[in-house]
TrEMBL record:
A matching Pfam family: AHSA1
Domain Activator of Hsp90 ATPase homologue 1/2-like C-terminal residue range list: 16-133
Record-linked SUPFAM superfamilies: Bet v1-like
Family: Belongs to the AHA1 family.
Protein name as annotated: Activator of HSP90 ATPase
Organism: Marivirga lumbricoides
InterPro entries (alphabetical): ASHA1/2-like_C, START-like_dom_sf
Signal peptide limits: none
Length: 135
């Protein structure tokens, strides 16, 4: 693997149990409220989640790993060409009713303007996740 591959990393602190955040990240209802309402999602290893952002194609994320209330890992198998082959992980750790979430979108082939735009959008994703889970 090329060590020069780019990765996006974001962190946020959410005043909500990790179980609520995990459920939001792994269910149709949760991701429909914070990412796009046009989706097919199941919390099952091997399932291919589908997200429609009205861009003329579906973004397909294969569920690679799930550790309840702790870890989610997806691999992009279809989307914008720059996303295909990348992985997205969500790491959760709860302490005194605050959950730390570390989001990583890694294995990018190069740092492009699309990469930079996605970096911004992942930050907005975490902001929406925080608003949704704290309400």
């Amino acid at each position: 693997m090329n060590k020069a591959m780019a990765a996006i990393e974001q962190i946020n602190y959410i005043k909500s149990p990790s179980s609520k955040i995990y459920k939001t990240l792994t269910t149709q209802e949760g991701l429909g409220n914070i990412w796009t309402p046009k989706l097919k999602v199941k919390p099952e290893i091997g399932f291919v989640n589908e997200f429609d952002f009205d861009e003329g194609y579906l973004t397909k994320m294969k569920v690679q790993e799930l550790k309840e209330n702790k870890w989610v890992l997806w691999e992009c198998i279809d989307s914008d060409p720059e996303w295909v082959g990348t992985k997205v992980s969500f790491e959760l750790s709860e302490n005194e009713n605050v959950t730390t979430i570390v989001l990583k979108h890694f294995d990018w082939k190069e740092m492009t303007d699309f990469y930079r735009w996605c970096n911004y959008n992942w930050a907005m994703f975490l902001w929406r996740l925080k608003k949704y889970c704290e309400k």
